[in-house]
Specification:
It is built from six helices and no strands. By secondary structure, the protein is mainly alpha-helical. The longest helix has about 40 residues.
C-alpha cells in the first residue's frame, strides 16, 4: 500500500512539474512571438522585401535639432537602441568618431558676385554687405542661372 501511495505521489508531482513546464513553454512562446513582431516592425524590409518606412538621415536630424525635450528624448532612445545592438559603436576611437573630432579647414567661399562688385554698383561700402546677404545673393544668381554677363 505504501508503495502504491508513493507511486501516486510521484505521479502527481510529475504531473504538476509537467504542467508547470508547459505553462513556462507557453509563456516563452508568447514572448518569442512578441519579440519577433517587434523586430519585424523595426526592420525596414519585411519578408517580402518591400519597404515599410523611409530611412532617416542623421544629417537631417542634426540639422533640425533645437534642444527641444521631445527631440532630446528621441535621441536618447536612439542611443539606447544603438548601444543595445553594439555597445562599441558609440565609443571614442572608432572611425566615425575620429572623423568627427578631426578639424577640417572650411572651403573658401566662391561667390560669383563679390562684395566689391555689389559695392561698386550700389555705391555703398563692401563691409555693408554681410555673409548672409552675399550667400543669398549668390544663391539667387545660381538658381536663376544668371551666371553670365550676356543674358537674353
Amino acid at each position: 500500500m505504501r508503495l502504491l501511495n508513493r507511486a501516486w505521489t510521484l505521479k502527481s508531482r510529475i504531473g504538476t512539474i509537467a504542467s508547470q513546464v508547459l505553462v513556462l513553454i507557453q509563456c516563452l512562446l508568447k514572448a518569442t512571438i512578441q519579440v519577433k513582431r517587434h523586430l519585424v516592425d523595426q526592420c525596414l524590409f519585411t519578408m517580402t522585401g518591400t519597404m515599410k518606412a523611409k530611412p532617416i538621415r542623421l544629417l537631417d536630424l542634426f540639422k533640425y535639432y533645437r534642444r527641444l525635450g521631445h527631440q532630446t528624448a528621441a535621441i536618447q532612445e536612439l542611443e539606447d537602441e544603438i548601444n543595445a545592438l553594439d555597445p562599441y559603436i558609440l565609443t571614442k576611437g572608432t572611425g566615425w568618431y575620429n572623423t568627427w573630432v578631426s578639424a577640417v579647414a572650411p572651403k573658401p567661399k566662391q561667390w560669383l558676385v563679390t562684395r566689391e562688385q555689389v559695392a561698386q554698383i550700389s555705391g555703398w561700402k563692401p563691409s555693408d554687405f554681410d555673409d548672409k546677404f552675399m550667400n543669398d545673393l549668390n544663391m539667387l544668381v545660381r538658381v536663376t542661372d544668371m551666371t553670365s554677363l550676356n543674358q537674353y
